[in-house]
Amino acid sequence: MNHNGTKGVSRRGLLATLAAAPALGAVATPQAARAEDFAVTAARVQAALKDAKGTKLVLLGTGAGPIPGQARRMTSNVMLHKGAAYVLDCGLGVTAEYARTGIPFAALNAIFITHHHPDHNIEYGPLLVIGWVQGMKQSVRAYGPPPLQQMTEDYLRSQKVTIDFWAEDFHRPPLGMIDVHELPTAGPVMQDDNVKVTSVLVQHPPVKPCYGYRFDFEDRSIAFSGDTIPLEAVAQMAKGADVLVHEAMDMKAIEDYLRRQIAHGTPGNIDTFMAHMRADHSPPEDVGRIAQEAGVKTLVLSHLGPSDASVSDASWRAAAAKHFKGRIIVGHDLMVI
Fold first, then answer.
1. How much is the pTM?
2. How many Å apart are CA 23 and CA 199, to the nearest integer?
3. Fold type of domain 52-336
């Protein structure tokens, strides 16, 4: 693999070959069909990233909430610049989706967490351990709200037996504590040869602090709202950015979804659930207003709620377009932007 990681990506071209191969049987099982879909999607993503010129954003997971088994996986993203990868949020599925992009784990430079809800951090620890098994470097760094240091130490301590067995068996240095930077306040986060990262405080009660992030690469800037109500602070953070990735919640559809879940035994009260949604999340119409005020070129709707397929892309897009006149993308898992 060369220093920018492109050879590592192309090695995974086997998936493209498999995806293009003719079916061996007349009738495909649901499992086989799903495996073929996975292979086709992975091949498409890898083709888009192969020898990529400029910064690429891959939406690894675009769903809202700690809800498994939905059409969209939980929230996570990866940005690739000159062979260096930067992950934002680690919802359930981030490790597998990262692998499907074909980006080598050795390319992972840093991980950023917006806030401590399970759909954003539940797979942070597993990403470190599985990533290490797959070649992730000990120099990887992590950034996020307190108590990220303690969380990292606790998780690695819980996995010490596993890590030590693997290190002994395959004669490699064990994964130790990584370089963690807690962010008690918003502002400058980090800067390296590829990117400058800043954060802004957003409103997602009762979680404090909760951040949005902006990544300024040499060729494009990408801002992420994090989980929040519509905020002027997000518009200011994203001012002039090429891309704004903003959460969106269809309040009517999410209420219908939650009523169905409660009817099927999910514990909770619909009034309590909806009070949370309105106090913590953003309708797509307001997301469009924030994007228009920020003057961004492209608005990406992600962290979508509900995370099933009950709201069409056209409906998401039309709601945001009431106020935003630029390019609107409705996020889907493993979409390359």
1. 0.90
2. 48
3. Metallo-beta-lactamase; Chain A (3.60.15)
Q: Which residues on neighbouring strands pair with residue 197, listed in sequence order? A: 190, 215
pLDDT, residue 30, reads: 55
**Stretches in the chain below the pLDDT threshold 70:** 1-36
Other CB atoms within a 10 A radius of the CB of residue 99 amount to 16
First to last CA, the chain: 24
Write down the pLDDT at residue 52: 83
Task: Give residue 26's pLDDT.
Answer: 35
Residue where the block lists tokens 């910064």: 55
3-state secondary structure 134-170: CCCCCCCEEEECCCHHHHHHHHHHHCHHHHHHHHHHH
CA 240 to chain centre: 22
How are the residues of the chain apportioned to helix, strand and coil, as percentages rounded to the nearest 5? 40, 25, 40
Q: Return phi, psi of residue 101, to 5°.
A: -70, -20
Q: Where are the domains of the chain?
A: 1-51, 52-336
Given strand 195-201, what is the order of strands in its sheet? 188-191, 195-201, 211-217, 221-224, 243-249, 298-305, 327-330
